[in-house]
Specification:
By secondary structure, the protein is mostly beta strands. It has three helices and 13 strands; from the N terminus they run βαβββββαβββαββββ. A nine-stranded mixed beta barrel has the order 4-5-6-9-8-7-13-12-11. Strand 8 (165-170) and strand 9 form a beta hairpin. The radius of gyration is 18 Å and the shape is globular. 33% of the residues are buried.
Length: 256
């Protein structure tokens, strides 16, 4: 892991084993790393970054109501697996390496940010209907598969990752919703704080001595992005030691 010394970036604390403890209650709170010294945002634009999406207002509306928004969900269909997939130097044949970060307060909803690399602005930010502590706990027990499904409209023209709201499954069990949103200032502060980190897990220090939602934790790793079709993409979080394939698989599926 290559790291640069940045005076304005607060130190990252090691991930304590209590972060993976059971008995997690589901609460929500915004991500707000209120560190004593806030880093300046110097993240780069991703290479394929375009102008602001015309549907950003729609994303914000969905974000504000998604906790009570009814969804009719079909059966979960995970389209691909790594069985028989060739791994070379911890790289999936046909995949594109990305940087992925799971972060959030331990008792609050977890966020997923995908970047071209740790120095770029995120190309995707999702708020998932599962708590950070519960997801990290499940990952500590073994392979986790997350499927995000949405229905394809009659004249679907938007890209699959631009869909605003998804039905969320975790290891085959429905677990609420996943909502795409534009990165907030607080999200960008987390990404800037973590920009020297290529892989790792830990705690981001904040000003508050006590928080009802627990510590602000993160897990960052390389992801392999595999585009299966216009209606299916998969992200595999790869083990750093290159053994036994991914620890986490995230499937995006758009169905008719």
């Amino acid at each position: 892991m290559a790291a640069q010394n940045i005076p304005s970036t607060p130190p990252l604390l090691p991930l304590h084993s209590q972060i993976l403890s059971p008995n997690i209650t589901s609460t929500t709170s915004p991500i707000s790393p209120r560190s004593v010294s806030r880093p300046t945002i110097v993240l780069q634009q991703p290479s394929n970054k375009k102008g602001s999406s015309k549907s950003s207002k729609l994303f914000r509306r969905f974000r504000s109501v998604f906790r009570s928004f009814p969804i009719i969900t079909p059966m979960c269909k995970i389209p691909v697996s790594l069985h028989g997939t060739q791994l070379q130097d911890n790289h999936i044949h046909g995949g594109t390496r990305m940087s992925g970060t799971l972060f959030g307060y331990r008792k609050a909803r977890v966020h997923l940010a995908i970047q071209e690399n740790s120095r770029c602005l995120p190309i995707l930010v999702l708020e998932l209907g599962i708590t950070t502590g519960k997801l990290l706990q499940d990952m500590g027990l073994g392979l986790v598969r997350i499927a995000l499904e949405c229905e394809k409209g009659p004249s679907e023209k938007i890209k699959i990752l631009d869909e605003p709201i998804w039905t969320l499954y975790c290891n085959g069990k429905i677990s609420g919703c996943g909502v795409k949103r534009e990165p907030t200032d607080e999200d960008l502060m987390v990404m800037q704080t973590l920009h020297p980190v290529s892989m790792g897990a830990g705690v981001i220090p904040t000003e508050a001595t006590e928080n009802p939602d627990g510590e602000l934790t993160y897990m960052r790793s390389h992801f392999e992005r595999v585009i299966n079709s216009r209606d299916s993409e998969t992200y595999y979080m790869m083990n750093p030691d290159g053994n036994s394939g991914p620890e986490l698989s995230i499937f995006f599926v758009r169905i008719k």
